[in-house]
Design a protein that fits this description.
With about 210 residues, the chain is α/β, with parallel strands linked by helices. Helix content is about 60%, strand content about 15%.
């Protein structure tokens, strides 16, 4: 199985790319979804977060108050490291389980790991191939304001916390430019998919 990492800045349009790869046949592991899963209601992960940060981080439904937690860790590097120290190992365990399952189910297939912070977390070496979804900063900003409804200050702050476009492109085996329309995006994804399939077949034959 070919182990692929997919990354891109906030507002670059990574989710649309992931959707297209999944439609083409990729097995997708979504790091953000797993991060939510491991601290869901009733999990040891949630218990650990509440023990570390206090009951005030528990929402009215008994789960994690994500807005309150996000507000705490966004500008507090130490708090973010403490949270990551709980969540990241749990996510890593789930990724290992899902990877093993994918290897059993489709040993010649393509595993796409949707990981927003590959550069920031320094984990590029975990993947055989890196695909970066890229868009100019003005396009990212426009999407955050008009699609996600963020304030400009919040959008710029979130963009500023992430790796630069240059840093992401520097680790890329393939760059998908998502500054155009959906048809152009899908054409690029299809081209990258064809290349990944070739690499997966070569690996299996090799």
């Amino acid at each position: 199985m070919l182990n692929v990492g997919l990354t891109g800045g906030i507002g670059a349009g990574k989710s649309e790319v992931t959707k297209r790869f999944a439609a083409l046949g990729a097995t997708v592991i979504d790091a953000d979804a797993l991060a939510r899963e491991v601290v869901a209601i009733g999990t040891p992960g949630l218990d650990a977060v509440i023990a570390e940060f206090g009951e005030e981080m528990r929402g009215d439904d008994g789960g994690l108050d994500r807005d309150k937690m996000a507000a705490l860790v966004f500008n507090d590097d130490e708090a973010r490291q403490r949270l990551n120290g709980i969540v990241h190992p749990l996510v890593g365990e789930r990724v290992f389980e899902l990877l093993a399952q994918a290897e059993r189910d489709d040993p010649d297939g393509i595993l796409l790991n949707d990981v927003p912070l590959i550069v920031e977390a320094g984990v590029a070496e975990r993947y055989e191939v890196i695909v970066v979804v890229d868009a100019p900063e003005d396009v990212q900003l426009d999407r955050l304001l008009n699609i996600r409804g963020m304030s400009e200050a919040d959008a710029r702050a979130r963009m500023g916390k992430q790796a630069s476009r240059e840093d992401r492109r520097a680790i890329a085996d393939y760059v998908i430019d998502n500054s155009g329309d959906l048809a152009d995006l899908q054409r690029q994804v299809d081209e990258v998919w064809a290349a990944l399939v070739e690499r997966a077949h070569a690996k299996s034959a090799g």
